[in-house]
Amino acid sequence: QVHLFETGGGLVQAGGSLRLTCQASGRVFANNAMGWFRQAVGKKREFVGAISWDGREIYEVTVKGRFTVSRDNTENKLYLQLNSLSPEDTAIYYCVYNVGLDSAWVSSREAEYAFWGLGTQVTVSS
């Protein structure tokens, strides 16, 4: 079992920045990929970005260039730097985790991630 705990959400003005952190604990193995999904009120959950164990990053097209995913494998932490925020980025942001076949594995598919955090709210005011 892996437990994921997100922190760093909050209220920010449009154009501002936030940094989310996800702490993984429990049976954390190497070759895992971690990432972020988000869900706004009344909308489907969507992929934001993810990173493989060896650092390969993938992003949803609307956040590419504004958001950056990074990780610290020694501390089992995942980060999401959110810049140039807009009200459309308002959502609950969820951390995800799963172990792949190798260190380069990473996915944007929701079904590929077995473990999810409870989420942290990001609210961007106009």
Helix run count: 0
Helical content (DSSP H or I, runs of 4+): under 10%
- The rounded distance between the terminal residues' Cα atoms is 40 Å
Number of strands: 11
Q: Mean pLDDT, nearest integer?
A: 96
Write the element-wise H/E pattern from the N-terminal end onward.
EEEEEEEEEEE
Helix- and strand-based class? mainly beta
**Percent of sequence in beta strands:** over 45%
Radius of gyration (CA) equals: 14 Å
Sheet with most strands: 7 strands, mixed
Q: What would the principal axes of the Cα set say about the shape?
A: globular
Low-confidence stretches: none
Features of the shown structure:
11 strands, mainly beta, 126 residues, seven-stranded mixed beta sheet
Give a brief rundown of this model.
With about 130 residues, the chain is mostly beta strands. The chain is built from no helices and eleven strands. The model has no long low-confidence stretch (mean pLDDT about 95).
Topology:
Blueprint: E1 2-7, E2 10-13, E3 18-26, E4 32-39, E5 46-51, E6 57-59, E7 67-72, E8 77-82, E9 91-99, E10 115-116, E11 120-125
Parallel strand pairs: 2-11
Antiparallel strand pairs: 1-3, 3-8, 4-5, 4-9, 5-6, 7-8, 9-10, 9-11
